[in-house]
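Sequence only, no structure available. Ideas?
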Amino acid sequence: MVLAIIVLPLTIIMNAVLFGTQYFQNWLFFLSSTVITAIAFSLYFILCGTVAVLMKKRFPHEHQATLKITLMILTFVTMTGLFLLLLFRGYEAFHFYDYRFNEHGFIWAYISMAIVNIFLTLLLEGISRFEDWRRNLKETEQLKKTFKQSQLHGLKSQVNPHFLFNSLNTLSSLICEDEDKAEKFLNEMTKVYRYMLRSDDEQLVTVEEELKFIESYQYLLESRFGDGLKIHVNVGEHTKGKLVPALALQTLIENAFSQNTISKSNPLIVTLGCECPEKICVSYNRQAKALTEPMGYDQELDNLVKKYTLLNQPAVVIEEREDECCIYLPLITQEEEVAV
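Reply:
I predicted one. Tokens follow.
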């Protein structure tokens, strides 16, 4: 592209230097000399391009850029002198329209071509470095995206295995006590784990989908804890179309019952509500139990916080009071672009 742009004007300027006003007085002379000089310039610039490629291969590293550019300029300036000498002497040798070598014209042509060569060398090197920078930027962004996606996948479906074991124990007890309840429990348990498996392939789900899952999850918990655990859902229709990370609400509910005592006399009350359109709040009364060993529940909450960071969303806000804990989960609208 650059070659096509510069060859024709250079050819006309060079022929004007070579032949003077005679160049424009005869259309046959103008046409023939233009074609010959244009072919010569094309071959010259192709040779320069080959030298540039060889130089790039010889000096590929960033710290060699100054040396590479210096050598390219010196080489091209030398080649320019030889090329012009051949061009001027060639026209003279073939007696092209009685041309005679013009030393003054040669010097001006050489200086002009040398400047053009230096300019083109710096221009093309700048374009090359810009393209490299843009390609590296694109690769870097792709690597960041891949890394974020791998981090998100690493944080998915980290459901506490104790929940599975406890659910199976509850199911086992119900089979002995009430087969109908056991069958319903198994159906709800199937829904829960089907949703959990599906969430591996889904980064975000609607609040409505998450709440449907919570209904089944709530049934399992209430079957296990009885009147010791109460979950109230008060989420408006206007928020159900918004998005949250899959299993986000389940993580907050599990965090609540895992770290607090649960009994019929002192039930744990978990409330899911929306105080504003941008957030959903999960709150519960604090009645912390003494843990003899770390169970990793805090880690699951930390993972949820990390998800929001990786999704470039507002932070999860945790407010702990003496008798209550409130966790505010930002809602994501359908129109928002999640940058991962």
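Residues 103-155 form the longest helix (53 residues).
Hope that gets you unstuck.
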